[in-house]
Design a protein that fits this description.
Layout (H helix, E strand, L loop, with lengths): L5 H15 L4 H8 L13 H4 L36 E5 L3 E3 L2 E10 L5 E4 L3 E5 L9 E4 L14 E4 L4 E9 L10 E3 L1 E5 L7 E3 L5 E4 L3 E4 L3 E2 L21
Parallel strand pairs: 6-13
Antiparallel strand pairs: 1-3, 2-3, 3-8, 4-7, 5-10, 8-13, 8-14, 9-12, 10-11
């Protein structure tokens, strides 16, 4: 895709900043390089400091390098806007060994305020668009520890953007069963609305884990009156 207008670049940058407040980059880096030292003065390695459950991080990490496709932000609603009044885009799957993360954006391309509150309803589909047996968790735990704003009212004016972040692990523990790998993602923004189907930039490779955690919808920082405010509370207790 070429010639992305400055307006789209600005919104894309805001989405990346939003994801940076959710918390995953340290864990992604730790999984890419588990032997790195924890401090410059010869501290213990990240592998030594990891919790007993290798599927969880010891503390909420500070950033998430989720890349998302540029959401459509029209100056006015156009014929390309779906009848639902919203446009849904999925981003690139960011992988670090077994841990995966992906952002999904929702843009209000209609004429009226669009309201969200809570988590999207998701279904992982195969290459024939048939649903796979996947458990969708409301919240990122127990997949990993990261910030989640939890259900809260989100009001999107025309052209404004909301985002949710999906996390999962590609772990194979049983070689006698077929690992789950999805091609498409069906997203229902809220109860009573029609779903939209998106094609992630990378497969949804769940191995044998069979579950995906998702954060609640939250507004892009560029759309908030005070973008400097925290976008989500940090978890206070380890996941189980």
């Amino acid at each position: 895709m070429t010639g992305i207008p400055f307006r789209r670049v600005a919104v894309l940058s805001a989405v990346v900043l939003l994801a940076a407040g959710c918390g995953l980059s340290e864990e992604l880096e730790r999984e890419k390089d588990p032997g790195r030292t924890a401090s410059a003065d010869g501290g213990s390695s990240a592998a030594t400091d990891a919790p007993s459950d290798p599927g969880l991080s010891a503390a909420p990490p500070s950033g998430i390098p989720v890349q998302t496709g540029p959401p459509v932000v029209p100056d006015a609603p156009s014929a390309s806007c779906p009848a639902s009044g919203v446009s849904i885009r999925s981003g690139m799957v960011d992988a670090a060994m077994g841990l995966r993360a992906m952002g999904v954006t929702l843009t209000n391309c209609g004429k009226r305020t669009y309201r969200l509150n809570g988590y999207p309803k998701l279904r992982v589909l195969d290459e024939h668009r048939e649903p796979l047996d996947v458990q969708i968790l409301e919240g990122p735990k127990p997949v990993t520890l990261m910030d989640d704003p939890g259900p809260h009212p989100v009001a999107l004016k025309p052209g404004e953007v909301a985002q949710t972040v999906l996390v999962w692990r590609n772990t194979v523990t049983d070689t006698t069963t077929t690992a789950v790998s999805g091609t498409y993602l069906e997203v229902t923004p809220k109860p009573g609305t029609r779903p939209g189907t998106v094609t992630p930039e990378g497969r949804i490779d769940l191995g044998n884990t069979g579950r995906i955690g998702t954060t609640a919808w939250q507004k892009s920082p560029a759309d908030d009156a005070d973008p400097s405010r925290p976008t989500a509370p940090a978890p206070s207790t380890p996941a189980s």
